[in-house]
Amino acid sequence: MPELPEVETTLRGVAPHIVGQIIDRLTVHNGSLRWPVTEGISEITKGQQIVAITRRAKYLLVELERGSMMIHLGMSGSLRLVDRKTERRKHDHIEMQLANGVCLRYHDPRRFGAWLWSDNGYPQLNHLGPEPLTDEFTGKRLFELSRKRKIAVKPFIMDNQTVVGVGNIYASEALFRGAIRPDRQAGRISLQRYELLAGHIKDVLASAIAQGGTTLRDFVNGNGEPGYFQQTLMVYGRGGQPCVHCGKALKDIRLGQRSSVFCLTCQR
DNA sequence: CTTTCAGCCTGACGGC
DNA sequence: TGCCGTCAGGCTGAAA
């Protein structure tokens, strides 16, 4: 489900309720996720205190006294805080009961997500690009990394080595705001245009986070409150509908297996 | 090296 | 009503 704003919204919703708490019991109902849930995770985590929860790219990192858990929501995952008496729903694969009575449930119909424990770091985090909302991420970086690259700009900005956390929705929206065709070769875009694009990526992510994340399908944040950023999407999911600027029908093409909606007139 | 592509899963939706 | 194909927010590993 989530793009970065949804993960960030989940983090913010969940953190105040779980940090500092002791794990009474972690139960794995279905450990068959993208990678098998760490063998013995229930025994390892029992009685440990949650020291902190942070985010790197779309990975949530739950720091324990010994080691950490890394959670990814994949395409359809979500975390919810419920009372422990609340009945489990279908696809609630993992639940973590805390000493304060709160229960964190991991729900993921497609099971593309992950829930791992390690005291030795995670290789998935090794080659990630910068966080988009930091000064490490700039138009200059996009320009320099893209020289001589033939890849289309949309998959280029969605590549986690370029910058993390830019998924299909926000890539589409940022390119529209930057007036760049998603299928334009990454290596043929000027520094000036990349500087504008980087700014749009930051704006679109920051405003989505500010609004509490996009509600799509089964997304709910950690408090069970839906976000509502979808109301301001200008191209994503609007193929065939009129462009908000010029009124012409938006084009829908596929790039790297992903649908890409854009305006033939406004984006070049 | 860069780029593309199949695959991991379930569920929703549209066409017949 | 059901069956079938297509599509969906991500990411990996292998092939080209």
Q: Quick summary of this structure?
A:
The chain has 268 residues and is an alpha+beta fold.
Instruction: Provide the CATH top-level class of the largest domain.
Output: Mainly Alpha
Strand content: 15-25%
Sheet/helix structural class = alpha+beta
CATH architecture verdict of the largest domain: Orthogonal Bundle
The H/E string reads HEHEEEEEEEHHHHEE
The average pLDDT score comes to 92
Poorly predicted parts: 215-219
The number of distinct β-strands equals 10
Give the count of structural domains: 2
Helix content: 10-25%
Can you tell me the overall shape? elongated
Number of helices: 6
Looking at the structure, the CATH topology of the largest domain is Helicase, Ruva Protein, domain 3
Distance between the termini: 30 Å
Largest sheet: 4 strands, antiparallel
Rounded radius of gyration (Å) = 20 Å
The strand order across the widest sheet is 1-6-7-5
